[in-house]
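Good morning N.,

You mentioned wanting to compare the apo and holo forms, so I went ahead and generated the holo version with aspartic acid. This is what I fed in:
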Amino acid sequence: MLSPRNCGAVCALGEHADAIDLARLVMERTPHVILAGAGADSFADAQGMPRGDLLSETARARWQGWLRGEKSVLHVDPGLDSRAAMAKSLGERHEPHDTIGVLAIDGLGVMAGACSTSGLAYKLPGRVGDSPIPGHGLYVDPEVGGAVATGTGELVMGICGSFLAVEAMRRGASPLGAVKEVLERLDAAYSLEPEHQVGLIVVAREGSRSSGAIRSGFAMVVADDEGVHLEAPEFVLRPGPKESQP
Ligand code: ASP
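and this is what came out, ligand included:
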């Protein structure tokens, strides 16, 4: 994503692993913003992108075991109780995963953002998280700055988390102020459970930055003229031990 007018995304890819490269092609070569599922894979084939297996053998075996043992979680009746039970069951299986969110400013001062993920583990077929949706997992407005989120996508999506962070800066907040506004909005909007985690990185147009998370354990990597280093979040809503980190 370069700007509201210049963004692209893909989701539910079945055959191609290079999601960010493909998202960039959607942005550069189509009039669309998001391509999903088989259509995204066809577009990737047409663009000459290599096909690949998206699951390692280990991941496939664990997923198949889960499907065999607990398929009932896929068929719970609609309604508040079963909805909560399913969320808990899925949440308890929350494992560290692979979301990469990047905000970069080049030598000419142009900001770009990118985000890639396999999504939460053990999700229902068809589930789309926050990462491929502009304004949710990632947002960039060159007039203001950018934000990228990781963690429980369903929480981020309910409050348009990345958009909210950029809008906070548009209203005058610092990157840290924007991080706090988003995390406090999450706290107000949801009853946060122990398995919930959201991490947020916010960069202002001129390069100042901040990051924060619901719980401890989130960290961002900073690469600048001084080298590459890990930075702890400036704000943690509920500090404490957390085994599964996004
Ligand atoms: N936010 C991603 C999702 O909900 C997962 C993650 O960041 O780890 O799919």
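Residues 97, 99, 117, 119-120, 129-131, 137, 150-151, 153, 246 surround aspartic acid (CB under 6 Å).

Happy to go through it together on a call whenever suits you.

Best,
F.
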